[in-house]
Amino acid sequence: MENTHLISAAQKFGTPTYVYDADRIVQQYNTLEGAFKPLTVHLHYAIKALNNINILRLLKEQGSGIDAVSIQEIHLGIRAGFSPQKIMYTPNCVSFEEIQESVELGVHINLDNLSILEKFGAQYGSTVPVCIRVNPHILAGGNANISVGHIDSKFGISIHQLRHVCRIVDNYGINVIGLHMHTGSDIIDADVFLRGADLLYQAAESFPNLQFLDFGSGFKVAYKEGDTFTDIERIGERIKDSFQDFCKNYGRELELWFEPGKYIVSEAGKLLVETNVVKQTTSTVFIGVNSGQNHLLRPMFYNAYHQIENITNPEGEPKLYSIVGNICESDTFGFDRFLSEVREKDILSIHNAGAYGFSMSNQYNARLRPAEVLFINGKMELIRKRETLEDIYRNEIELPQLAKTEKKHVDLV
Q1: Which CATH number fits domain 269-382: 2.40.37.10, 2.40.420.20, 2.40.280.10, 3.40.50.1260?
Q2: Which of 32, 212, 305, 397 stands the most exposed, by the fewest C-beta atoms within 10 Å?
Q3: Annotated catalytic sites, by residue?
């Protein structure tokens, strides 16, 4: 997907627009799957990263399953054609009614709460198999908001509560077929996975009916030149050795599961924006674009770095800018970036926008969410229309007593 394709997409579909490269998504999927062969590996794409039905169907063609964290995401996966048995449901702080609905749908259930596990056992006993999410108390991840395996995290059942888990399982005869962990995102150290893996291997001794171990994900991609990233091949080699040793000790071969999201789609996506103004202040030259944190929240929420490129004036003289949005907050996409000279109407491409871009977008300031486009088989295909004002107020209900247009006149004495 070259810049000429991106410019063509901006001209055809307008801006701001998300553009995704189908070939890159498939490439990332195959790289990850291949890193752990010859083990029996199942990848469940984390739908929260990017949930457009066309992206889901593209990954389904590759053999992927779905990792869902809400009942709504389960329904999105089913709508895209995934069978329930290809969907792993990992809820957190949801009602038991939602878990009951997921059981009726027939998906894999992954529980991370002792009280919910006990309710589950009381209702279903051994009739519905379940996976248990363990919190390994390993601090990992590039940002506090995406580090989920530490002792203060709300996610998972503490590894130190394993004895209590076993009491509940034994009391209700719960059929535990999987153990799961997820330490966080942006992990580059194989030792983090191995430390967590060792804990799961030890915990597995208490559950004789396991069919799989799920190591979550968290694989890091590079956001800028020289940035660190997960060496998938290296991690694959180390995990393969430890997992094969575990299976030998356990007495039979188990499946190895992962739930990649960002790794699959991040680098495949770009957000195209148009320059509204070039604003010189006493200390900074701002590039004001027709987008903001309502379209790409990661720079504000995670302090994430996204490379930004001027694709309509690539040969211009490099100058120092801060790129900001049109929202009434300090919605900065990038501080002090060297870009080829930017002029009004120039199109900027914001890289690594495939994951947690559109899926975290919103209608703040009554701004419209952008269009989505997929570059597939050499063509730019529209896969989501740009929102309209009707989309913003579609679900509003006007009260008749407040809908009067006549203005009352009040006499002042």
Answers
A1: 2.40.37.10
A2: 397
A3: 328
